[in-house]
Amino acid sequence: MGRRNGTPRRTGARPRALALLLAAALLGGCADDPPVPPPAGSGETVDGAGRPVTLTVGVYGTFGLKEAGLYDTYMRLHPDVAVQQTSLARADVYYPQLLTHLTAGAGLADVQAVEVGNIAEVVDTQAGRLVDLAHAPGVEESAFLPWKWAQARTGDGRVLGLGTDIGPLAVCYRKDHFAAAGLPTDREEVGRLWAGEWRKYLETGRRFAARAPEGVAFTDSASGVMAAVISGARLRYYDAEGRLVVAANPAVRAAWDLGAAFAEHGLTARLQQFTPDWDQGFAHGRFASIACPAWMLGYIQDKGGPDGKGKWDVAKAPRPGNWGGSFLVVPAAGRHVEEAAELAAWLTAPAQQAVLFERRGSFPSAEAAFGLPQVRGARHPYFGDAPVGRIFSAAAMGVPVAPVGPKDGLVNTILSDTGMLQVDQTGRSPESAWRAAMKAIDNALDR
After folding, report:
1. What is the pLDDT of residue 50?
2. What is the pTM of this model?
3. What domains does the chain contain, in order, with CATH numbers?
4. pLDDT at 18 over 60
5. Phi first, then psi: what are they for 34, rounded to 5°?
6. Does residue 321 contact residue 395 with C-beta atoms inside 8 Å?
């Protein structure tokens, strides 16, 4: 569940809506959707049963909760509550409106979705307008991954958002292209090629390039490599005190330098992610590997089409990282705050997160869901029956707790599109592009 609209941008939460095909392919199949309750009417009495409470959930794009049947199940379990969803197709339209409504204390849904790239700004600027969910009925801190729980926590210990999903990292690769270049194809052997260090991924790319099939690059883009490396850093764009440290952070500069090295060695297909050309790169097999959060599996299946089935596989990433995720928050100005908090807690509980993964492909942010059958035993036929539940669970467990800043998404977009894209596509020197990106970040943040 990251970005779910038709105009993706590079943020800490990559588009996942386009990846919701994952669930349809997971082995074991999906349970039948629960029966739909009687249609809702207008006002507080919403159906023939006279439900006294109507809760609204505001989301962006195809968020997955409704599509997975979770609202219907909740209404069956709570006959006195009706749940209705409102959705804006574009996250970049949804979020400014959410901030406006929070400030005004009006026009809000009872439960609102927030993308990970925006959660720090919401926590920093809207804390007094949101409900502390740490002790909402059914919420257990121990059920969530520590780093996910920390992303929506205030300095005084309040938790203003409950995680819905995450984007743990792997590497997806084309077995046929690897075989043609003389590289191993077994996922365990492939993972060992670069185990422990992203620079080994670069070394593997150079080995691949020496015998690459004609017209096939090792990976899609330098920006994708850079984003993957940053996703596993303990310090990224902001420090724990909320200060912007992107220019001085050696971890960011190391990720930049590695991404640039891929471009300079000719190892990328020089594509911009989430564009038509990138989609065609999947369809025509123009690259052999890609840094691959869990939500990207469905995207690859969609764009690679039937011809790609069985050619793709999934291996462990060099180091754990997380690329994407969302939260649910409860505005304090809502009409039914207690009921809304209970709904948010239920929707993000491990059992429901497992259902959401099974049916829609959104990987759970609740560690307690990893052992449930829908997650633990999940395999993906399109990717050679890769044990995706096991691979991504292990990756999620290794992600470090890292500060999330109020403008993480904007900083990431500038690094990728103002900076690294120029290195990859125009041959601009990495140093010149870095200076341009830093200047653009300062300008965008009025520094």
Report:
1. 60
2. 0.83
3. 19-166+324-385 (3.40.190.10), 168-323+401-444 (3.40.190.10)
4. no
5. -65, 155
6. yes
